[in-house]
Design a protein that fits this description.
With about 400 residues, the protein is α+β, with helices and mostly antiparallel strands. Helices cover about 30% and strands about 35% of the residues. The protein folds into three domains: about 130 residues, no CATH class; about 60 residues, SH3 type barrels (Roll), CATH 2.30.30; about 150 residues, Immunoglobulin-like (Sandwich). The strands form three sheets. Strands 1-2-7-3-4-5-6 form a seven-stranded antiparallel β-sheet. A hairpin with a 7-residue loop joins β3 and β4.
């Protein structure tokens, strides 16, 4: 019975190792395809392309020259000092004596086209997309998940290279119908190492899991709700957007018009930018189930302490604003101590209420050092290899 259990364990371990090897080869193949055909992956954080590409989708895109763009294509366009945008092409115009093209675009869920045309040399064409797969990628980027995967990979490495007992005699093999597992071949070991490489890299680059909080403030007939990861907003990294949702609702006693305004104050040198979209329903994972209105696109946030109206609604409605906040890649290098404070005001029906997150700042230079988890992951794998080599030497000496 003991040998049978041991044989089953070896069979399961061998299957896991071969699956890991296959995964490593697949990873390597994807890297080759990305390099040869300019294929990359993008995640959709918003629902501007719903229902064709809902929020949370993971899409495969390929870079193409502007001369190949056709009306109806869904493409990603890079914007200077702003986030890329992925919408459907509605028109294509040639530029005389140039390979550039001037295109207009519109999100499938948006009522109007993007406010400005884009002059492009290249774009990234969306080839295919899988709904909700981006959430899996985000989950895998959680440092706790990556730690578990790395420990598992280290265990597999140790087991793969651990010295095996000599083969049993024929009589023993006949008594045990489950065949003994042969030492792993070079293909399995190489595939396992290829699989581990992206795991280690992801662990080194993984950020903290988002902590989204919801805070409601009421004053008489108006209620304002703030939803967002305030820690992420307080530590913005250039080019990495953070979402903040603000909802305004009223009581049954309210009447007339409710005005919604934004007040920004702080140092303009940060260059804080935002996309603002409005929905008549609460945004769920960046997706609006109702009518979407573009309030502001890639605009600088005014930080002069003045209120500026964003939108208005009747007392019978509710309004949900989604802010995409980010810092430009070419922002000042010494802006670490600069902060911007945002506050959304709702006023009407003789009442006023406001809500604001923590002050928005840049990622501090004294944050978590990615070299620490990188060294820990590499160390765990090396430790497994050292153990296996040490055991092999002891066995060869008859110890």
């Amino acid at each position: 019975m003991g040998r049978r259990v041991k044989g089953v364990g070896q069979f399961i371990g061998g299957a896991a190792l071969n699956l890991a090897a296959l995964g490593g080869v697949i990873c390597l193949a994807f890297v080759a395809l990305a390099f040869i055909f300019n294929i990359t992956l993008i995640m959709f954080k918003t629902g501007s392309m719903s229902p064709t590409i809902p929020a949370g989708s993971l899409s495969v895109v390929r870079e193409i020259p502007a001369t190949e763009i056709k009306v109806g294509d869904v493409v990603t366009v890079d914007r200077p000092a702003a986030l890329p945008i992925t919408h459907r092409v509605t028109s294509v115009a040639e530029v005389p004596l140039s390979t550039e093209r001037i295109i207009t675009m519109k999100g499938d869920a948006n009522e109007a086209e993007d406010p400005f045309p884009y002059t492009v040399n290249t774009v990234r064409l969306v080839l295919a997309s899988v709904p909700n797969l981006a959430y899996g990628v985000i989950w895998l980027s959680n440092p706790w998940v990556m730690a578990v995967l790395t420990i598992g990979a280290s265990t597999l490495v140790t087991w793969a290279f651990w010295p095996r007992d000599p083969s049993e005699d024929d009589t023993d093999l006949q008594e045990d119908p489950i065949p003994r597992r042969e030492p792993p071949n070079n293909f399995s070991q190489l595939g396992l190492i290829v699989l581990i490489a992206p795991i280690v890299l992801d662990l080194a680059l993984a950020g903290a899991a988002p902590t989204v909080t919801e805070v409601a403030s009421s004053s008489g007939q108006l209620t304002i709700i703030s939803i967002g990861d305030e820690t992420a907003m307080a530590q913005l990294a250039p080019g990495d957007p953070v979402q903040w949702q603000v909802g305004v609702t009223t009581t049954q006693r309210a009447s007339g018009e409710v005005k919604i305004e934004l007040l920004g104050a702080g140092n303009a040198r940060m260059g804080l930018k935002t996309d603002i979209r409005s929905c008549d329903q609460r945004w769920v994972k960046g997706n609006c189930g109702g009518n979407v209105i573009e309030v502001q696109t890639s605009g600088l946030v005014a930080v002069d302490g003045m209120k500026r109206q964003l939108t208005a609604m009747t007392a019978e409605e509710e309004r949900w604003l989604l802010f995409d906040l980010w810092l430009p890649m070419d922002g000042p290098a010494d802006a670490g101590d600069e902060l911007v404070r945002l506050q959304v005001h709702a006023s009407g029906s003789g009442d006023e209420v406001a809500s604001s997150p923590r002050p928005i700042g840049t990622l501090p230079p004294t944050g978590a050092n990615p070299i620490v988890p990188l060294l820990a992951a590499v160390g765990a794998i090396v430790f497994g290899l050292v153990l296996a080599v040490f055991a092999k030497k002891r066995r060869s000496r008859g110890c």
